[in-house]
Design goal:
35% of the residues lie in helices and 16% in strands. By secondary structure, it is of the alpha/beta class. A hairpin with a 2-residue loop joins strand 8 and strand 9. Helix 1 packs across helix 11 and helix 6 runs parallel beside helix 7. The longest helix has 19 residues. The structure holds pyridoxal-5'-phosphate. Pyridoxal-5'-phosphate (PLP) binds next to helix 4 and helix 5.
């Protein structure tokens, strides 16, 4: 127990950062640009559904914004992850490595492929995959056979790894990539939370074979609901588009589909909203980084709390701000959540770890002490970009 932790004092420090006097949600979208204009144009055009100019434009905008040679817009981030796993060849019976500390979509997507999630630990500093611990673990439990590495205990092939950039903080990719290479694991980045986050100057989502983005309503940029697949490989990109648009063979007069595809395309109406939101990404990142700096500075003098800062190699989008209760005591964490709720401040704990959920309880896993400690001690703080508005950027009402 940390004697010095004072939940009320901590909550007051948070309150001071948030200028708004009324109650504040954890994260809200902000429509301050061309959203109305583009959505109205889209409705007026009549093309609101599965085809239209805004989908193409949105894909080009994502490509330009991230530097990814290809971007395929889809219906949500979960569908993007699902298809990403298929694209790198995850097959029924395979195991896929992923952090236990993640949103449910990451683990569900593995199951949709008939594969088994294999849970790995996270680091306290980045909240992402602990590459060193993973390397040691894989040396111990794997055996090499022909086309890859197999789990000695279950006999399953280890097909892929899904690093997730938690709350927008990039994982230690220089640590992770050599481990993935050695054990022939395809990297599928779950970049759902990290649009606008860079690892050593390169956008997250460009480090593996494929990556998934999300444009859900609570993300830094929203299409209402939506997602995207990123890749640098033209053949994978072609296949991603094909699989997510019912696998129809392009032909004017016939409806022929050459495999069981998915109806995962993003409607044009959602893409219109997305085009307007993407224009403001850098502005939102600037607001969020400034808000994060205020939290960091206000909380640095509060005993027993540690603000989660971006790793030294990163520029994080600070999608969700987070603090850790240093005592690691769930009672302290709950006291902080209570004190914040009492002041109308929308805070929340970390996700319940995947390996504790009933459908994933029997999945293989390494020791997960750090993830468990993060689960007990983490609290997310209000992080909407509008909480710290900067002078208007160029994308406002153009
Ligand atoms: C938001 C999110 C997703 C995708 O969610 P959708 O709501 O399906 O767009 C996937 N993984 C993580 C870590 C997320 O935060």
């Amino acid at each position: 127990m940390n004697r010095h932790f004072d939940a009320a004092r901590s909550a007051e420090a948070v309150r001071e950062v948030i200028s708004s006097k009324s109650s504040v949600a954890l994260h809200e979208p902000w429509f301050r640009g061309n959203e109305q204009k583009y959505v109205q144009e889209c409705v007026a055009s009549g093309w609101v559904s599965s085809v239209g100019a805004y989908v193409d434009r949105f894909e080009q905008d994502i490509s330009r914004t991230t530097g990814s040679p290809y971007a395929i817009a889809v219906v949500n981030g979960t569908a993007a992850l699902h298809v990403c796993l298929l694209l790198v060849g995850v097959r029924p019976g395979d195991e896929v490595l992923l952090p236990s500390l993640t949103f449910i979509a990451t683990a569900n997507a593995v199951r949709y492929c008939g594969a088994t999630p294999h849970f790995i630990d996270s680091e306290m500093s980045t909240l992402g995959v602990d590459a060193r611990k993973l390397g040691d673990y894989l040396r111990e439990i794997t055996v090499r056979r022909g086309d890859g590495y197999y789990n000695r205990l279950t006999g399953a092939r280890l097909a892929a790894i899904v690093p997730m950039h938690t709350f927008g903080h990039p994982v230690d990719l220089d640590g992770l990539i050599p481990v993935s290479d050695k054990f022939r694991l395809a990297i599928v980045e779950d970049a759902a939370e990290s649009l606008g986050s860079y690892y050593r100057g390169k956008h997250t989502g460009l480090f593996g074979k494929v990556a998934a983005l999300s444009f859900n309503g609570n993300k830094i940029v929203t299409t209402g609901g939506g997602g995207a697949i990123l890749t640098a490989d033209s053949e994978i990109a072609r296949r991603a588009k094909h699989l997510t648009t019912t696998a129809r063979i392009a032909d004017r007069w016939t409806f022929v589909h050459d495999e069981v595809g998915f109806n995962f395309r993003l409607p044009n109406l959602n893409a219109a909203l997305g085009c307007a939101q993407l224009e403001q990404l850098e502005y939102f990142v600037a607001c969020k980084r400034s808000l994060a700096e205020k939290y960091r500075s206000a909380l640095s003098n509060v005993p027993g709390l540690r603000f989660v800062s971006e790793p030294p190699y990163a520029r994080s989008n600070y999608w969700l701000n987070a603090v850790l209760v240093e005592s690691g005591s769930i009672d302290d964490r709950n006291a902080l959540l209570e004190a914040l709720a009492h002041r109308g401040i929308g805070a929340r704990p970390a996700w319940a770890l995947m390996h504790g959920l009933p459908m994933f309880r029997d999945c293989p896993r390494m020791s997960l002490e750090t993830a468990e400690s993060i689960e007990r001690s983490l609290v997310n703080l209000p992080s909407s970009a509008w909480l710290d508005p900067k002078p208007a950027g160029p994308a406002q009402n153009t």
